[in-house]
Design goal:
This protein has 240 residues and is an alpha+beta fold. The chain has one domain: Nucleoside Triphosphate Pyrophosphohydrolase (Alpha-Beta Complex), CATH 3.90.79.10. The protein contains seven helices and twelve strands. It has helices at residues 26-30, 32-43, 76-84, 143-155, 189-200, 217-221, 227-238, and strands spanning 2-3, 10-13, 15-20, 53-63, 66-75, 94-103, 108-113, 123-124, 163-164, 168-173, 176-185, 208-214. The strands form three sheets. Strands 2, 6, 9, 10 and 11 form a five-stranded mixed sheet that branches. Strand 4 (53-63) and strand 5 (66-75) form a beta hairpin. Helix 2 packs across helix 3. The longest helix is centred in the middle third of the chain and has 13 residues, at 143-155. InterPro entries: NUDIX_hydrolase-like_dom_sf. It comes from Bosea lathyri. This is NUDIX hydrolase.
Amino acid sequence: MTTGVVDGSIVPLHRVDARVEPYDWVFARESEAEIASHWARISAGKPAMFNGRVMLQHHSAIADGVFQGGYFETDYAAFISWRDFGLPGPVVRNGFAMGALRAADGAFLCGQMGEHTANPGKVYFAAGTPDRSDVRDDGSLDLAGSVIRELVEETGLEPHEITVGEGWDAVIAPGRIAFMRPVIMPLPATEARELMLSRMAEQAEPELADIVIVRSLAEAERLDMPPFMLSYLTHIYGQG
């Protein structure tokens, strides 16, 4: 059965097939001056903001629980400018993987972004826009690997300290698709948070300012969370 990629929907998946391919992104090509000016403004005084290469999604389809997406490579500055300029042009999405990290007592563990990042103060699961390190030799995109890599990089956890589940929930929103994968940490939330904070304190330049424990939708709604995160948590808590 074919399912549409519809903004505002959450679609369960058993597989995500993503591939990097050539694509002429007209926005980036025709807006070079505006992108350069915007990047200079938002990155001023934030040396940790790096204009590297990222992968964005330019087409997608869902059939029989399998998501198929085509990605292309672009500058981070172009991506951020496109986002901040209101997503101009044909449909493009930031299609990224997220580990929906949950403690042994059922609480979710989210990161709060540091002031030196592009999203200061925002609260969400560890994640990152796919980049060259996620691209396999055959051109496919390793989104499952990205879940572990981002958790390790941002929280200091080791792969053996977490259990990654199967399947995905695609949270579809304008300009983005968050591919949520369940991840369990076998510690109570308070202990898990303290462990991550201790690891982050050892990092030279931590991306996260804090680890936030979320035990209910009401708690989530009081935080500075992007709408797609609230949609996902509403979906999860609504399942009972």
